[in-house]
Description:
By secondary structure, this protein is α/β, with parallel strands linked by helices. The chain has helices at 40-60, 109-118, 139-142, 162-172, 213-225, 235-239, 260-265, 268-275, 295-298, 307-313, and strands at 10-16, 64-70, 85-88, 92-95, 123-126, 143-146, 151-155, 175-179, 196-198, 202-205, 229-232, 246-250, 253-259, 279-283, 300-302. GO terms for molecular function: transferase activity.
Amino acid sequence: MPASVQSPRAVVMIRPHHFTPNPSTAADNxxxxxxxxxSAAEIARAAHSEATRAAEALQAAGVTVHLFExxxxxxxxxVFPNNWFSTHxxxxxxxxxxxxxxxxxxxxxxxxxxxxxxxxxxxxxxxSGLEQDRIYLEGTxxxxxDHIERVAYAARSMRTNEVILERFCTHFNFxxxxxxxxxxxxxxxxxxxxxxxxxxxxxxxGLDTVKDAAxxxxxxxxxxxxxxxVIDLSHAQIGEFCGNALEVDGRGGPVVALSSRAxxxxxxxxxxALERHASLLPLxxxxxxxxxxxxxxxxxxxxxxxxxxxxxxx
Length: 314
């Protein structure tokens, strides 16, 4: 079965040693919660175990996992690497400006060097200098990318600046579709990837989060027009991280990686709809979800050609 342009065969993950919900991001991340019943050390140990088991489950499904350790105490959100870099077909890598100062410390040259060593990397475009101008675009958290139709869906927020979004889309050949999205309490959704997930043949999206009715219809029509089955998620399901999933290329075909919490919140008909297009891989990460992100946030997809593939082709 040929791999889909939409589904990465490999992912980068970070295993945290000192995980904690980030106080610096709590103001605009309504999905973030506290755990008063466990000590900081217990929370950190649990997150380390959850990341380990998630990586093992993905590897067992046939996904290549590049697992890096984070042993510092300065990067509480390091388990979510999709926000600071992304990779793209043709050998392109982007590095992004981050809203929270302590999240900027997550950027790691060793990860970029690994990508260059293991994959064909033609260029690295670094937007992080725009932080000095208070211009932010937090990677594939801020954008949900349709790699097939070349569309970048982006909900406006403090973490998604339209100026740099336009620049990214020009550099990487995407069409931007920007919209306003709010949660059930009317608060802007901080990252686009908590409200939508685009696979090869399906799209999950919380359409009710899109404030403008005309824009909502336009987005639905655009997704359906690409030939995908559109699975509408409720506000409650968005709150359970149902939209924060990622389709990856497993040994037997497409796999939707999502949290066990998200899978439990889906209706049986929605599960059947997903299973028409991919197998489901639920991952148990309740501690990591305290930080306001879920499985998709943990996975930085590698959309690059491996050097072993290049050697075999030669």
